[in-house]
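Exercise: predict the structure of this protein bound to calcium ion.
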Amino acid sequence: MFVTEIKKFIQQNNYPEFQLKAVFFDMDGVLLDSMENHSQAWVKTMNGLDIPFTIEEAYLNEGRVGHDTINSAYMRTFGRTATLEEQEQIYETKTLHLEALGEILTMPYATELIEKVKQQNLTIFLVTGSGQPSLLNSLDDYFPDVFVKERMITAYDVKQGKPSPEPYLKALEKSGLNPWEIVVIENAPLGVESSVAAGLFTIAINTGPIDTEVLASSGANLVLTGGMKELYERWNDFYQACQAIK
Ligand code: CA
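Solution:
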């Protein structure tokens, strides 16, 4: 069944072909089981500043760089964006709350999927809005030698975070590949918007409380309601569909 979606993608984007060479992974909610802690840390941080902020809002902001989340909450509450100093302070507080919430583990099936992708000799990139050093550093412990600086785009590499296409366009440039040689794995609406706007085939996996419809309407080429488990189980089918297109 994946052949249909891939053909549609080629046609919509006017690409000459689809030849899978690389997988671009988002981090939070895809590789790391971190979204619940992130959401709680944001709520604690904002409420500590008398800014109303809910768990749901944290999930809907997923993928944004920290200062965008801070600015939109500031705008709504105080009618202005936060100063650079405030942004830094607030992000630091959020980082402390996040770290106090304890160790973050990998998403179920993330290790197995990465292993499969490695065996298929596909290039692996990380494209994240995160600037959390503890999480970025943990990647090398969980997935040794997979995520190295030359194949990573983080909050530190972009001017505009997701949903702007910039993070994915930067990764594309860094990879030296064509947009028809990549598949993106995302779990959040803003992340999907970003990669679709960059012209990349995007698989959205639903790993959180957000309605699957929201992921579909943000433009994903494929939506898997069964999260990482379903992606892992169907990965070989997808890979074979890519071979069949050639
Ligand atoms: Ca994510």
